Amino acid sequence: MERYSALVLSIALAVASAVAATWQGWFLLLTALFSALSTLGAYDLLQHRHAILRNYPVIGHMRFLFEGIRPEIRQYLIESDQDEEPFSRDDRSLVYQRAKGVEDKRPFGTRERVYDAGYEWLTHSMVPVHIENADFRTRIGGPDCRQPYDASIYNISAMSFGALSANAILALNRGARKGGFAHDTGEGGISRYHREGGGDIIWEIGSGYFGCRTPEGRFDAERFRDRAADPQVKMIELKLSQGAKPGHGGVLPGAKVTAEIAEARGVPPGVDCVSPAAHPEFSTPIGLMEFIGRLRELAAGKPVGFKLCIGHRREFMCVVKAMRETGITPDFIVIDGKEGGTGAAPLEFANHMGMPLVEGLTFAHNALRGADLRDRVKLGASGKVVSAFDIARVLALGADWANSARGFMFAVGCIQAQNCHTNRCPVGVATQDPLRARALDPGDKAERVFRFHRNTLKALAEMTGAAGLAHPGDLLPHHLLMRERDRDMVTGEEVYPYLPEGFLLREEEDRFGYLLRWRRARPESFGPVGPWV
């Protein structure tokens, strides 16, 4: 309870100075000062706007003081050529401004280093288009889907109840309901707070099959059928890997498995909750496709797909070949970039395992095009997709929609304290401590989630119109330019081109090595890892 120490100290000093004032009158000044601080602390506990103040009364105001002088500090850092944070404060403050519905314009032009290698921009038109409706959508559902879903092109990425607090889940889902976009449950199952929120749900199922598992941890078809029938569940997403820690399982210690978490996951409370590194229900590409088909049938034809971070490229080719072999295609695939976030991951995995989003997305897009399957499978993209430009970039490079975890976490109040794994989140987002979680007001933060989504899509509409297009789905690689070296620029089409439809089936050579991996891929086995991965 040390976070209340400033308030307790203020009250104690107010009382002590009041007593001392009976002997020395000047102590009344201190009495007034500490009484004012005590009153401020009491107000902090009762207000609902700022979670940081509810958890850290009185002393939490220091954060806002430092934020007030941040422009001067930031200018010093720029002038002294020092880096600030791994994730841009400009992007984070942009989310806060859009979530709060305040002005997000910036003076003095770009803050990016436009002459540095890697700088990217969209081309614009001399005849821009005005786009009135920014509610951009894409229909997800292949030829075997009987209940297609018209999804927003920007949705909440996978974050489990257990990793996030009940109030955070409730705020996210309420915001999704108001804005008409989807909320991915993460692999922790569908909690009572998802249901209470009433928003559209993408039910993610990981290797632990939480919410549809037998006591031994295997897939339970009847439990899955019952939960998938809920009208709130719009799509089913089978998680193969997560960008921040691909190929890595996990254990939620029994001490953290509360009654509510156990209810959502379908596990006994107080017992270690294990997510294996691999799925026990299939071990081959054909087996994966057959499982996808089985899930779709059990879900009465709702869209079913899978999420992964691209690893061995040949293995993804094996899956594509299995689609052609079985005639079963997923309705969608979500490509998760290795830059995606997580509450906890081994440092080496977070830094050096898995393929970044742009490369993974481009590879999956072209592999499906090469096998003449791209029109049957929609592609989602996740991994540090926060701003309107981030969305525009992944759409130009082949995605049909984008997901964001980080952006929506900022919208509910995340300050990147990086205490997610300690249960001591200062703003009640990533914690199961009920006292810390109470600081997050679901009603207020749901409005911020809604406004962030709405204002980001409005900004995307403006960028799309400036490019002379009517819909962001019309963006193509040639609309994206990037600086390769000093004074040299290339188009996205040169670096990340759309390869011809069916080129793998025709066995046409390419300069990117797709055909080499295609020839080595087998639908009946992921096979041994060879020199061409």
Write the SSE topology:
Elements: H1 5-20, H2 27-46, H3 51-55, H4 61-68, H5 70-79, H6 89-100, E1 120-122, E2 137-140, E3 149-152, E4 154-156, H7 166-179, E5 182-184, H8 192-197, E6 200-205, H9 221-228, E7 233-239, E8 250-252, H10 259-265, E9 273-275, H11 285-298, E10 304-308, H12 313-326, E11 332-336, H13 347-352, H14 357-370, E12 378-382, H15 388-396, E13 401-404, H16 406-411, H17 434-437, H18 442-466, E14 480-485, E15 488-491, H19 492-495, H20 514-520
Parallel strand pairs: 4-13, 5-6, 6-7, 7-10, 10-11, 11-12, 12-13
Antiparallel strand pairs: 1-14, 2-3, 8-9, 14-15
**Number of individual domains:** 2
> β content, as a range?
5-15%
**Count of strand segments:** 15
Largest sheet: 8 strands, parallel
Q: Looking across the biggest beta sheet, what order are the strands in?
A: 4-13-12-11-10-7-6-5
What is the CATH class of the largest domain? Alpha Beta
Named at the architecture level, the CATH assignment of the largest domain is Alpha-Beta Barrel
List unreliable stretches of 5+ residues: 71-86
pLDDT averaged residue by residue: 88
Give helix % range: 25-40%
Describe the structure concisely for a colleague:
Helix 7 (166-179) packs across helix 18 (442-466) and helix 11 (285-298) packs across helix 12 (313-326). The strands form four sheets. This protein has an eight-stranded parallel beta sheet with strand order 4-13-12-11-10-7-6-5. Strands 1-14-15 form a three-stranded antiparallel beta sheet.
